[in-house]
Amino acid sequence: MDQDATQRADAQVRDMTVAPRMRELDRAEALRLVATVSLGRIVFTQHALPAVRPVNHLVEGGDIIVRIHDGGALASLVAPADVPGVVVAYEADAIDPVTHLGWSVVVTGYASLVADAGEVDRYAELLCSWVAQPMIGALRISPDLVTGFKLEAEGTRPGWAIQGRS
């Protein structure tokens, strides 16, 4: 195939690309999807301002568990004794940068320190650290509000091109 034929074929593929549609996720499917990835972002308040940190996690019994490192920002998330925890948001996703297909989930709820030493030890084994800092504890996020969407292939649409591709 000559170069002109190749360029025409490439242009034809670009012009007949998959057009995603957005579908809302129910709570169960959203939490199931969060459990399929190990990285997310926790949103919390630090010095009266919003802060975001990437963290690795696991999902257990509908709760999201994250590591707390010595000296890390999450170590300061301590709720007063008379409240169920500190309000946080947690986001995880898996979206293909080329096709733009995938999903995104946001969990809002209360984060509290895991008090049981046995549980903390078990989480230390299950949650592999991505940084060279010792784990000093674990944070349990109990979801109150779970929202999410999935970007799925709906079909092809002439002229719909994926951004960033030429």
Record keyword descriptors for this entry.
alpha+beta; 3 helices; 6-stranded antiparallel barrel; disordered C terminus; 19% helix; 166 residues; 7 strands
Average of per-residue pLDDT values: 83
Which H/E pattern describes the elements?
HEHEEEEEHE
Radius of gyration: 21 Å
**Helix share of residues?**
10-25%
Q: Hey, roughly how much beta strand do the residues contain?
A: over 45%
Give the total of beta strands.
7
Tally of alpha and pi helices: 3
Instruction: List segments where confidence is low: pLDDT < 50 over at least 5 consecutive residues.
Output: 9-16, 156-166
Shape: elongated
Distance between the termini: 20 Å
What can you see in these coordinates?
The protein has 166 residues and is of the alpha+beta class. It contains 3 helices and 7 strands, in the order H-E-H-E-E-E-E-E-H-E. It has helices at residues 3-15, 27-34, 117-126, and strands at residues 16-24, 39-46, 49-60, 63-69, 86-95, 102-113, 135-158. The protein is elongated and about 65 Å long.
Q: What topology does this entry show?
A:
Blueprint: H1 3-15, E1 16-24, H2 27-34, E2 39-46, E3 49-60, E4 63-69, E5 86-95, E6 102-113, H3 117-126, E7 135-158
